[in-house]
Amino acid sequence: MATQSGKISVSVPPPWAAGIEGLNAEQAAKARTRGEVNVAPMQTSRSLASIVYANVFTRFNAILTVLLGFILALGSPADALFGVVLVVNTAIGIIQEWRAKRTLDRLSIVVVSKATVIRDGLLEKIAAKDIVKGDVIIVATGEQIPTDGEVLASDGLEVDESLLTGESVPVQKNVGAKLLSGTVVTAGQGAYRATRVGEQAWAARVAKEARTFKLSRSELQAGIDRILQVIGWILGPVAVVLFISQRAVSGTFADATVATISGLVGMIPQGLVLLTSVAFAVSVIRLGRRKALVQELPAVEVLARVDALCFDKTGTLTTGELVLEKVDALDAGPLAEQAIGAFVRAFGQTEDPMLKAIAKAIPDPGWQIEKTIPFSPQRRWSAASFAKKGAWVLGAPEVILQAAGNPTAWGERVHSLAKAGYRVLLLAKTKDLADDVVGRGHLQAQPCALVLLTESLRDDAAQTIAFFREQGVALKVISGDNPLTVAAVARAAGIAGADAPVDGGVLPDDEAKLASMVESHAVFGRIGPQQKKAMVVALQERGHTVAMLGDGVNDVLAIKQADLGLTVGSAAPACKAVAKIVLTDGRFGVLPRVVSEGRRVLANIERVAVLFLTKTTYATLISLVVGVLFWPFPLLPRQFSLIDAFTIGVPAFLLSLGPARQRFRPGFLHRALIFSVPAGCLIALCALLALAFTRAGLTLEEQRSLATAIISVLGLIVLMLVSRPLLSWRGWLPLSMAAVIAAAFAWPVSRTFLNLSIPSLFP
Question: Domain count of the chain?
């Protein structure tokens, strides 16, 4: 056939699709004109410009930038050290959100690039993006469905919908059945008409919702934001009072400005924001070494707060592979197992997971193959005959038993085994595999053995489940698979409540009733994507911090909705794009380490937050008092930088990286304020009393040096209290920082740079 631009005509439709009319060129062109093309927009909700804008143009960046400008214009560059924190913290925020945006932009559910359609009565290969609404699409084994549609012809068409629904059993699709984009044809072939294309297709709609930008909610960052908000309201009045008083005291605009900026910079705990980001970043590196990829910094902390963990069965509790549990040979004896071993080899290198599991467990007896009949979706069994060993059939028990004429004899046993979570195949012996017998479906077979398979449980599943159970985390198995199968796997992993699985068909629509059911049960099967999301919402409304771990597109909406989304390295691209943490090697057992890392970050940041909030408290009080009393401000910005660096900054950084195993407790901000506010008030009181008693006898430079010394000593005492227990490396931290500050006073170069002098009352 002639080659056309962008597409190639290959053949006429197959016989089973005879009489089905596709679009002609004119109809396809009109559909394109109407915009009914299989193209979906690929944008996240935030552009690079909006990310930069959100991180640069913040309230405190604006305040600090203005203060930095005044210092550089009117004061000494030595007093502008706080500008470094401003730049670094902003850069970290931009880089992290840009990485998240790039990940979201790569989100893809439908990856098919070419499709076969009927155009003008001929089969044509076209790009999937050129499919229009109304096109008739031909699909065959191994191909992905590019659009939603309705089946027009089926030649044994079976589709694997596990990516979307979680149900691991292929679904037979007859005429009139619905197809969803993103599913994969596992058997047969068929033709269907595209009914929804582009952004209207199921996969595109899921991708669109998944791409919505959403940062993890961090209690640490939320607490810090509240602190900054309160300080923001105080800064204005303090700045006015302080500037008026300093202008009256100093007489010059420049000196008054520098003194005011010194007070305001001391009030802002900008180092706490930076340190939190750095601590998260270090945790990301540590977890990366353990094969856990963190795609958003606050996610480390959120997992430490999780008290409800939802996860799919496949890829988490199980490896996704089947294992032969046993062969129940009944009256057939050893011959049945030999027949099974020979049977699976008769079909060569098969990709069928059941046959692969059997071949791995049962050796080849070396029987000579005479004839084979491959598996058919219509028959639901396959057959093989062997020289001197007879003919054998292996397949769905209910079909073979029905054909054998005794469906009830073994039916109850098959049902009880399926209820226990096994996947069951039936081996039967037959006398005749003649083509006419098979074609008419007149199979005469004698049941010989049941083949029992189970999903392979991960080696670390039980240990991981035990860890979360000991930590008081509620575990919810939410799967698209059969509830009985899910319950069996959950039971083997040690999940409490696995004996009472819930079928998704009985879940109520009422939100309150749904929340109650989700709260009281642990195992759920045949759960659809929207139901998974609704269950996560129900747990959140009950006050839980929810993590969702899944690996299929059917999990994407729930992963996105959860407080923390997790997935594995082998998951669908859509899952990896929206999850905040990816377990790259697929090991469920790495989660306890991730939780421990999150708890380390929480405990250490809470510890160092006390140091920053103490400084904010005493800086605010000193600014207010000297402003009201019209005293000269007792510290220069560079002196504040000395105190900040060696009583807070450097120690806080080291403390944030140390080990900690405390369990998470809500109320971080409340606990930090209970300690820091009294400590800050005490430091401010001591410094102000010292100034009050020495104002008449000391120069302004000596007063500032005295205030620097007093605040430094008391700040080191606070550091000692925060660093407990001191019988470790933490005990050396306050001593080493004290030595550095003492050296700053003693060394002439640093003393000159910091404008320090030894007060005359300490000769």
Answer: 4
Q: Is the pLDDT of residue 4 over 50?
A: no
How does pLDDT run across 259-303, given as a tens digit for each residue?
888 788 778 876 777 677 777 767 777 777 777 877 776 777 787
Helix (H) or strand (E) holding 241: helix 219-250
Domain end, chosen from 562, 595, 628, is at 595
- Given a contact cutoff of 8 angstroms between Cβ atoms, the answer to whether 228 and 62 are in contact is no
Q: Are 377 and 437 part of one and the same domain?
A: yes
- The enclosing domain of 243 has a CATH number of 1.20.1110.10
Q: Note whether 295 and 566 are within 8 A (CB).
A: no
Domain-embedded: residue 102: no
Q: Give the helix/strand (H/E) hosting 391.
A: strand 390-395
- pLDDT digit string (tens) for 201-225? 776 776 665 555 455 556 677 777 7
Question: What pLDDT shows up at residue 729?
Answer: 77
In this structure, what token pair is assigned to residue 739? 């030595």
- 193, 25, 180: which is closest to 109 by C-alpha? 180
Decide if 345 contacts 392 (C-beta within 8 A).
no
Longest dimension (CA), the chain: 118
Q: Euclidean distance between the first and final Cα of the chain, in Å? A: 104
Beta carbons of 120 and 136 less than 8 angstroms apart: no
Lowest mean pLDDT among 504-508, 545-549, 596-600, 708-712: 596-600
451, 340 Cβ separation under 8 angstroms: yes
My answer on whether 449 and 463 are in the same domain is no
Structural domain boundaries, residue 572: 284-318+459-595
Same domain, 642 and 713: yes
pLDDT of residue 107: 44
Last residue of a domain, one of 406, 436, 457: 457
Task: Note the pLDDT tens digit of each residue in 162-198.
Answer: 655 555 556 778 888 888 887 778 777 899 999 998 8
The residue to which tokens 């059997």 are assigned: 358
365-414 tens-digit pLDDT: 889 988 888 776 666 788 888 988 888 888 888 778 876 666 566 777 88
DSSP 663: P
- Contact by Cβ (8 Å): 144, 182: yes
- Is 95 domain-assigned? no
CA separation for the pair 537, 556 (Å, rounded):
14
Q: DSSP readout, 263-276? A: HHHHH--HHHHHHH
Gap between the Cα atoms of 348 and 328, Å rounded: 24
The answer to whether residues 492 and 526 belong to one domain is: yes
Q: Is 93 exposed, middle or buried (0-12, 13-18, 19+ CB in 10 A)?
A: buried
DSSP string, 718-736: HHHHHH---SSHHHHHHHH
Is 553 in contact with 206 (CB distance < 8 Å)?
yes
Residue that has been written with the tokens 């009950």 in this structure: 542
Let me know the angle formed at the C-alpha of 164 by 158 and 167, rounded to the nearest 5 degrees: 65
Question: Catalytic amino acids?
Answer: 312
Q: Token pair 């044994």 is at which residue?
A: 156
Contacting residues for 23 by C-beta, under 8 A, at least 6 apart:
31, 117, 118, 119, 132, 134, 135, 136
Q: CA 472, CA 496: separation in Å to the nearest integer?
A: 12
SS (H, E, C) 602-643: HHHHHHHHHHHHHHHHHHHHHHHHHHHHCCCCCCCHHHHHHH
Q: Are 669 and 229 in contact (CB under 8 A)?
A: no
* Cβ contact 719:737 at 8 Å: yes
